[in-house]
Amino acid sequence: MPGLEIRPTSDRLRETLFNVLTAGHPQALEGSVWLDLFAGTGAVGIEALSRGAAKVYFVEKSKRAADLIRKNLDSLGIVTANFELLSQDAVHAIRGLAQRGVQPEYIFLDPPYAMRESYRDTLHELADLPHFERALVIVEHEKKFDPGESIGKLHRVRKLEQGDAALSFYRRSE
């Protein structure tokens, strides 16, 4: 649907996110592995790379958005060893990455706000897959929409609101 495909995370919200993740520890993201699901422009994953992440898996189903991510990565001279662009839906990408043994420290999930079922489906998939149990799952959503306090084994540990958007942080517990 036109208009639903790309809604980049605002600069201010992205800055807040990375300030929270690196609070008091500027090198906290060094060597980390990220999944940027529903990556859009790739801004969050690119920011993670600029702050020392070793690898970002950009997952974007929309061809137009995936092409934009590739263009953004190329324009910044980011080497292909530091990222992988997966042009598929998030659930299939998550399953494939788990089968490959990818163990991310951070998973950023930001579907188009109107695709509320994508939050539920993706979070349920993340809640149960092995290899992802250590990951901090960060969900960007509309402030007026709550993806849930708990989804399977994922439990919200923090919620930040800024303008009309919010970030919910989840950890897995057994």
Structure write-up:
This protein is of the alpha/beta class. The protein has a domain at 42-156: Vaccinia Virus protein VP39 (Rossmann fold). It has 5 helices and 8 strands. The protein has an 8-stranded mixed beta sheet. The relative contact order is 0.16.
Descriptors for this entry?
eight-stranded mixed β-sheet; 5 helices; 8 strands; 174 residues; globular; alpha/beta; Rossmann fold
Number of alpha- plus pi-helical segments: 5
Poorly predicted tracts of residues? none
Q: What is the string of SSEs from the N terminus onward? A: HEHEHEHEHEEEE
Helix/strand/pairing class, anyone? Answer: alpha/beta
By CATH, the topology of the domain at 42-156 is Rossmann fold
CATH architecture assignment name of the domain at 42-156: 3-Layer(aba) Sandwich
Percentage of residues assigned to helices = 25-40%
What is the first-to-last residue Cα distance? 38 Å
